[in-house]
Amino acid sequence: MSWGFLRDLLSGVNKYSTGVGRIWVAVVFMFRLLVYVAAAENIWKYEHDEFECNIKQPGCENVCFDHFFPVSHIRLWALQLIMVSTPSLLVVFHVAYRENREKHHNQKLYRNPGEIDGGLLCTYLISLILKTGFEIVFLVLFYKLYNGFKIPHLVKCDVRPCPSTVDCYISKPTEKMIFLYFLVATSCLCIILNLSELSYLIFKYSLKCYLKRYMKKQQ
């Protein structure tokens, strides 16, 4: 899979972000995207082939693997990366709309098309809410699908066509668990960053409105 488009998206968003937003971009790019491409993808690459059960009943290993891993960790992680990054496209599209509007009217309509104010502020806040929501949804999804944030060394399977309770072994469970904990930690960090940026922007906008009203009263 080529991740160039996601890298370009994060680079474009970085131009219109606040200080906290730039930290979020750095965390997603360095500690999630690069870790995924450089290491995590290879660890889960042959997870199905390396899943072994102590019986060679035809179809038993397949149904047991599907029962305990209905969705691959690494594919779900990839989907999470895409989903939490795409809301930032709203900001990029809004800035592009402002720039095209200025070209169409052939005049300066905004002090800076990329400045977070007015309608762009609303778009930015919506993107933060969506990113935070996606992060939480995927964390809950991981927890529900795999009965917690853990990779067991051994699972016992009694799903048909297995003739009895079968012991199945997962390859490199400790290594996979480390990356899973890393995934959860970076997701939580991104949630904290998104909520911090959301609070900062709301506080800044509220303070700006208050000062405007105060100045009008003084005049």
Features:
5% strand, 3-stranded antiparallel beta sheet, mainly alpha, 7 helices, 219 residues, de novo design (two linked rop proteins)
As an assembly, this protein is single chain
The number of E-state strands comes to 3
Strand content: under 5%
* Radius of gyration using CA atoms only: 23 Å
Largest sheet: 3 strands, antiparallel
Question: What is the CATH superfamily classification?
Answer: Gap junction channel protein cysteine-rich domain
Low-confidence spans: none
Shape: elongated
Average pLDDT rating? 81
- Strand/helix succession: HHEHHHHEEH
Domain Connexin cysteine-rich: 134-201
Function: One gap junction consists of a cluster of closely packed pairs of transmembrane channels, the connexons, through which materials of low MW diffuse from one cell to a neighboring cell.
Protein name: Gap junction protein
GO molecular function: gap junction channel activity
Could you explain how this protein is built, in words?
InterPro entries: Connexin, Connexin_CCC, Connexin_CS, Connexin_N, Connexin_N_sf. This is Gap junction protein. It holds the Pfam family Connexin. By secondary structure, the protein is mainly alpha-helical. The protein is 68% helix and 5% strand. It has a single domain, classed as Gap junction channel protein cysteine-rich domain (de novo design (two linked rop proteins), Up-down Bundle), CATH 1.20.1440.80. Strands 1-3-2 form a three-stranded antiparallel beta sheet, covered by helices on one side. Strand 2 and strand 3 form a beta hairpin.
